Amino acid sequence: MKIKYTKFWILSIFMLGLGGPGTNLHAQASTSDVQDLQARVARLEAELAQARQQLQDAQSTATEAEERAEAAEAKLEQANDTGPRKINIGNFAIGGAIRANYTIGDYSSGEGPSRGGDGGDFALDTFRINVDYQNDKLIGKLEYRWYPGYNFLHTGWVGYQLDEDTQIQVGVNRVPFGPGPYGVSNSWFFDQHYYVGLSDDMDLGVKYSTVLGNWSIDLAYYVSDEGQWRGASKDAARYSYDIIKNNNGNGYEERNQFNARAIYTFEGDSFLTAAGASFQYGQLDAAGTTGSDGDAAAVSVHAKGKVADFNIAAQLTYYDYDINGDNEWGTSDLVFMGAYDFAWPVATKAWIPAVTVSYTITPESLDWLDSVTPYVEYSNIMKDNGDFNDSAMFIVGAAWWRGGWYIYTDLAYSNGNYFVGSDGDVYNDSYDGVGDFGINGNDKWNMRFNINFGYYF
Predict the structure, then answer these.
(1) Domain range annotation of the chain
(2) Which ranges in 154-298 belong to alpha helices (H)?
(3) How far apart, in whole angstroms, are the C-alpha atoms of residue 147 and residue 101?
(4) Residue 244 pLDDT exceeds 90
(5) Over the stretch 85-100, which tens digit does the pLDDT of each residue have?
(6) Does domain 93-456 have CATH number 3.40.50.300?
(7) CA-CA to 68 of 20 to 30 Å: which in 13, 50, 77, 172?
């Protein structure tokens, strides 16, 4: 028995000796696996925490976006409630506007367009009727305006919407020239492009507009300007500035004008938001005793940008109205242009730089104001006609919007814009060759403060 027990213990000790190292290896392997699992769990917990934070941020952003959208929608509804709505009759939407103007300047009131003067001047500015038409893809627009003593068609066209981005207009429509419908300007005065027929110009013809990726393309042909309507002048009762005949019937008529414009819209965080170029060429038919025909050409580069919340728009244009010297003054350096029932001479060649800086504020805490846009504008007709003085204009102002009300408050300072009171002679029977947009002989700076009250419906 002792021998058996002894063999048993010896065998047991031998087996334990063999099993010891194997058991340690197994324990070490188990510890390594646990550490790996713990590391994986730690990584998963970190990823889960990050995912939870991202979800929380996304929910917060979505909530903020929803709140902003609701606030914007509420503000829009409030704006609609505070202003009149257009009258809808079938496929027609009828609206309009009535505007009054207060003007005071450091000059005598004189004759011609509403200039105001030292004593100030408050008068009816305009009354207008707008009609918009849409029937499936057939569209149209009509606008007629009345001013004290004269009236005219502003817009009148029919068109076809080929697709969401492509449209054709036939009739009196806005000429595609410059960075937008009003050039670079935000003010009631516009910039100096407007007064030489290169901004917000309405002519009679056909325009094709489309969007190709980031490009906006406009091509147009105009058989003539928008024509003479009702007023005291022979050829200046119209909205936009055109080369025209004077009261003696001498001058030029615009014919067969071609326009092309291309604007590229930038995406992302680029300083530039849009940049493009415009080109215009047309014929000038001599009228009355004026000599041979001429032509008119203009080219422009323009851009819009954004710095912080400030909007910047800039434009540089060169125009050349090529005429002969057999006219009212015996020179090819001056040509008649007119609008608002008033005509004056303009330099036939010039560079026009123009720049605007604006900032739109939407005060949520003010129930009486939807938005206000302060702006600073500068433009200059830098004449390429020998000894002619330039015609510059500097404007500081703001546009105020509330419901149907739109109000401009502008302080304008100019040495060559007849609306800002230059004392230079304008056209009459004994015209002596001065004039603000022409020679600008006195080169005098004047100031005008203007408030335009507009109610739109």
Answers:
(1) 1-82, 93-456
(2) none
(3) 12
(4) yes
(5) 789 999 999 999 999 9
(6) no
(7) 50
